[in-house]
Amino acid sequence: MPFETVSEMRVRYAETDQMGVVYHANYLIWCEIGRTDFIRRAGRSYADLERDGVRLAVSDASLRYHASARYDDPIRVHTSLSSLGSRGMTFAYRIVRADTGALLVTASTALVSITTDGRLTAMPAEVRGWLASAQGGAGAGGAHAE
What we know:
By secondary structure, this protein is of the alpha+beta class. The protein is 24% helix and 35% strand.
Protein backbone atom coordinates (compact mmCIF):
# COMPACT_ATOMS: atom_id res chain seq x y z
CA MET A 1 0.00 0.00 0.00
CA PRO A 2 1.43 3.44 -0.91
CA PHE A 3 2.45 5.73 1.90
CA GLU A 4 -0.28 8.19 2.82
CA THR A 5 -0.41 10.66 5.67
CA VAL A 6 -3.55 11.89 7.34
CA SER A 7 -3.65 15.36 8.88
CA GLU A 8 -6.61 16.24 11.09
CA MET A 9 -8.00 19.65 12.01
CA ARG A 10 -11.24 21.53 12.56
CA VAL A 11 -12.53 24.33 10.39
CA ARG A 12 -11.78 27.62 12.12
CA TYR A 13 -14.21 30.54 12.00
CA ALA A 14 -11.60 32.67 10.20
CA GLU A 15 -11.56 30.12 7.35
CA THR A 16 -15.22 30.69 6.47
CA ASP A 17 -16.86 33.30 4.29
CA GLN A 18 -19.97 35.40 4.87
CA MET A 19 -22.15 32.38 4.05
CA GLY A 20 -20.47 30.26 6.75
CA VAL A 21 -18.75 28.05 4.15
CA VAL A 22 -14.99 27.47 3.97
CA TYR A 23 -13.48 30.03 1.61
CA HIS A 24 -12.10 28.17 -1.41
CA ALA A 25 -8.45 29.30 -1.04
CA ASN A 26 -8.20 27.73 2.42
CA TYR A 27 -8.15 24.27 0.86
CA LEU A 28 -4.72 25.13 -0.60
CA ILE A 29 -3.53 25.95 2.93
CA TRP A 30 -4.81 22.57 4.10
CA CYS A 31 -2.94 20.93 1.20
CA GLU A 32 0.22 22.66 2.41
CA ILE A 33 -0.37 21.29 5.91
CA GLY A 34 -0.79 17.81 4.42
CA ARG A 35 2.33 18.15 2.27
CA THR A 36 4.41 19.41 5.20
CA ASP A 37 3.18 16.52 7.37
CA PHE A 38 3.93 14.06 4.56
CA ILE A 39 7.52 15.26 4.18
CA ARG A 40 8.08 15.24 7.95
CA ARG A 41 6.65 11.74 8.36
CA ALA A 42 8.67 10.54 5.38
CA GLY A 43 11.85 11.39 7.25
CA ARG A 44 12.73 15.10 7.20
CA SER A 45 11.10 18.47 7.68
CA TYR A 46 10.79 21.33 5.20
CA ALA A 47 13.03 23.33 7.53
CA ASP A 48 15.69 20.56 7.33
CA LEU A 49 15.51 20.61 3.54
CA GLU A 50 15.87 24.38 3.40
CA ARG A 51 18.86 24.30 5.77
CA ASP A 52 20.44 21.84 3.32
CA GLY A 53 19.80 24.22 0.42
CA VAL A 54 16.78 22.42 -1.06
CA ARG A 55 13.96 24.76 -2.02
CA LEU A 56 10.61 23.49 -3.28
CA ALA A 57 8.26 25.84 -5.11
CA VAL A 58 4.68 25.11 -6.12
CA SER A 59 4.52 25.23 -9.92
CA ASP A 60 0.94 24.01 -10.39
CA ALA A 61 -2.16 23.48 -8.28
CA SER A 62 -5.47 21.91 -9.20
CA LEU A 63 -8.54 21.56 -6.99
CA ARG A 64 -11.93 19.96 -7.59
CA TYR A 65 -14.63 20.94 -5.11
CA HIS A 66 -17.16 18.20 -4.34
CA ALA A 67 -18.93 19.52 -1.22
CA SER A 68 -18.67 22.38 1.26
CA ALA A 69 -17.15 22.40 4.72
CA ARG A 70 -18.45 24.70 7.44
CA TYR A 71 -17.24 26.16 10.72
CA ASP A 72 -16.14 23.55 13.28
CA ASP A 73 -16.40 20.61 10.85
CA PRO A 74 -13.73 17.98 11.57
CA ILE A 75 -11.46 17.66 8.52
CA ARG A 76 -8.95 15.06 7.35
CA VAL A 77 -6.39 15.73 4.64
CA HIS A 78 -5.10 12.51 3.04
CA THR A 79 -1.80 13.19 1.27
CA SER A 80 0.30 10.96 -0.98
CA LEU A 81 3.18 11.46 -3.38
CA SER A 82 1.82 10.62 -6.83
CA SER A 83 4.94 11.26 -8.92
CA LEU A 84 8.61 11.97 -8.37
CA GLY A 85 11.20 13.14 -10.88
CA SER A 86 14.72 14.48 -10.80
CA ARG A 87 13.54 18.10 -10.53
CA GLY A 88 10.06 17.86 -9.11
CA MET A 89 7.21 15.95 -7.59
CA THR A 90 3.43 15.90 -7.48
CA PHE A 91 1.29 15.39 -4.40
CA ALA A 92 -2.31 14.17 -4.40
CA TYR A 93 -4.83 15.12 -1.74
CA ARG A 94 -8.27 13.99 -0.63
CA ILE A 95 -9.93 16.30 1.87
CA VAL A 96 -12.85 14.70 3.69
CA ARG A 97 -15.11 15.33 6.66
CA ALA A 98 -13.61 13.26 9.45
CA ASP A 99 -16.96 12.36 11.01
CA THR A 100 -18.81 11.22 7.87
CA GLY A 101 -16.06 10.52 5.34
CA ALA A 102 -17.83 12.81 2.85
CA LEU A 103 -15.46 13.88 0.09
CA LEU A 104 -14.98 17.65 0.05
CA VAL A 105 -12.05 18.26 -2.31
CA THR A 106 -9.62 16.34 -4.47
CA ALA A 107 -6.47 18.24 -5.31
CA SER A 108 -2.93 18.01 -6.60
CA THR A 109 0.10 20.24 -6.37
CA ALA A 110 3.29 20.03 -8.41
CA LEU A 111 6.52 21.28 -6.85
CA VAL A 112 9.86 21.94 -8.46
CA SER A 113 13.30 22.06 -6.92
CA ILE A 114 14.90 25.50 -7.20
CA THR A 115 18.12 27.19 -6.14
CA THR A 116 18.11 30.01 -3.59
CA ASP A 117 18.00 32.48 -6.49
CA GLY A 118 14.96 30.76 -8.05
CA ARG A 119 16.51 28.69 -10.85
CA LEU A 120 15.29 25.17 -11.58
CA THR A 121 17.71 22.51 -10.31
CA ALA A 122 17.88 18.78 -9.73
CA MET A 123 17.00 17.54 -6.27
CA PRO A 124 19.87 15.90 -4.40
CA ALA A 125 19.91 12.12 -4.93
CA GLU A 126 19.56 11.54 -1.18
CA VAL A 127 16.33 13.58 -1.08
CA ARG A 128 14.92 11.75 -4.10
CA GLY A 129 15.87 8.46 -2.42
CA TRP A 130 13.92 8.93 0.79
CA LEU A 131 10.96 10.43 -1.08
CA ALA A 132 10.95 7.43 -3.45
CA SER A 133 10.92 5.14 -0.41
CA ALA A 134 7.93 7.01 0.98
CA GLN A 135 6.18 6.98 -2.40
CA GLY A 136 6.49 3.20 -2.50
CA GLY A 137 5.31 2.76 1.07
CA ALA A 138 8.62 1.58 2.51
CA GLY A 139 10.75 3.15 5.19
CA ALA A 140 8.30 5.83 6.25
CA GLY A 141 8.74 5.92 9.99
CA GLY A 142 6.01 7.54 12.04
CA ALA A 143 3.48 7.54 9.23
CA HIS A 144 0.06 6.03 9.20
CA ALA A 145 -2.23 5.10 6.38
CA GLU A 146 -5.99 4.99 6.29
